[in-house]
Amino acid sequence: MKNTYRICFFQTLFILFIILQNHSIHSQYKPLADLWNVAENEVPELLVRKKNLITGNHLLASLLNEEDFGGSYIDVKSNKIYINILNLSNKQKILEDPKMEKYKDLLEFNQVFNSLTNLNSTFKKLISLVIQYNVNNLIIDIEYKVNNVVIYLDYNDKENNDFINHAKKFNVIIRHRGISISSISNYQHGPNQNKRNLIKRAPPSKRPKLAIEILGGDGLHNKESYGCSAGFWVVDKEFPEIILLTTVGHCAIKGPFKSDGSVDFYHLTWNSLMTNTFVGTMETYDYEPIDRGYVAVNTSDTKLSIFPSIMNSDDRTYLELHIVGHKVLSEKDIGSTICKSGYRTHVTCGTLREIHDTLIMDGKTYKFVLEAELFSAEGDSGGPVFQYSTDDDGVVRENVNIVGLLLAGNSTTNTTLFHPVDKILVDEDNGIELTLLTVSNIGEIR
To answer: Where is the signal peptide (predicted)?
Structure first.
């Protein structure tokens, strides 16, 4: 563990050192302790438990056919893997399978009525209705915990009435969500800025050399003070002199646009005011279906300190979290713990709730969106979403794996949406593949 204290030779100072060190060991657990509503010293055990549950749930996936089961999910606090099963006679097959030998005591079977086949069929029909009635501002989920399709929308929006009446015929759950999950609908598009494809461009123009460090979760702002959060550093290995800082594409919506349609961005540290510290130029960005943008920094013409870390300065011990890799989440990770770092609300942790193939929000259609019960607010968009890399004994240190880029959030409903990391690194339409900078490969780039 990194130690920020010095060993003292006087007995009284040595005792103080032990006290401070003990406090710092636990301080990095605070976001997770807040999430689970437990004492910080209970977090390591829960992390070991979570890791075991996720492994068991992944092994379980191959045993659950979509005709007889309605999915599975984990619950860390109860230390259970919940399996939705239509016919309890199939329960024994799961329990007797050699793969599940060490997980048998963790399995809990819920008898349900909807199979995954039925749920997927209903979901597709509802998507067709959404298109037919041109419905906006809604979220449609398949939620394993309630074994049903759940629709979130505004009951008071009269334009939704026809859709609601038809959707009710499918016996789905319709919930009122009167507050929009994002503020993207308030933005105005710049000239010809509906979509700028991710393409390889020339280096940005020369700028004054800098001596600052930009971390994931730091703030970014344009010349008119509109801001968002920095994500993580990536590089196209064919052009290693240009390092790209990821964030959301809608961060560029308000411009001000240069003659080529690009937007300049400046640095904001946590709890700071607007600065004139230039970071780079966003020349490539999309608003939908993947909301992503890339701020270009020419490494041969800047003293900007580039290191793959995430801002975590509320923690006394690990002021930075080091990026060691990335992970692509799947449905079997639903219920697992994720965290984010953002300029507005800093580091918070929550639970992965759903994975959406398609999400319609504020008149825009997004693809590949993950939803979490996670506290965030306007200004956090573009920040990194990550999971702590834990030791076998559940000890959290300073290493993390990137799982996504924050798209939007609503602090009132405690909901956060984010794109998965693989959709930020790869643009299949344009044949672009970027590499995430980590502590192990940063030396190869410099």
So the answer is: 1-27
Compute φ and ψ for 142, nearest 5 degrees.
Answer: -100, 110
- Strands 173-176 and 148-153, how do they pair? parallel
Q: How many helices (H) and strands (E) does the chain have?
A: 8, 25
Say how many residues make up the chain.
446
Beta-carbon neighbour count of residue 11 at 10 Å?
A: 8
| Cα–Cα distance for residue pair 88/71, rounded to 1 Å | 14
Shared domain for 150 and 222, answered yes or no, is no
Shared domain check, 160 and 68: no
Same domain membership, residue 130 and residue 74: no
Q: What CATH number is attached to the domain comprising 138?
A: 3.30.70
The structure tokens 């689970």 sit at: 36
More confident residue, 83 or 197: 83
Phi then psi for residue 11, to 5 deg, are: -60, -45
432 in any annotated domain:
yes
Q: Are residues 122 and 89 in the same domain?
A: no
pTM given for the model? 0.76
DSSP code, position 328: -
Largest CA distance in the chain: 77
Same domain, 138 and 273: no
Tell me, yes or no, whether 107 and 144 share the same domain: no
Task: Give per-residue pLDDT as tens, 166-208.
Answer: 999 999 998 876 545 554 323 332 333 334 443 333 333 433 3
Look up the domain containing 150 and give its range.
116-176
For 53, the token pair is: 């549950």
Indicate whether 334 belongs to any domain.
yes
Give Cα separations from 292 to 78, 214, 287 (angstroms): 37, 18, 7
Three-state secondary-structure class, residue 353:
strand
Tokens, residue 226: 């509109």
Q: How far apart are CA 83 and CA 69, in angstroms?
A: 8
Q: Which of the listed residues 111, 136, 159 is the one where a domain comes to its end? A: 111
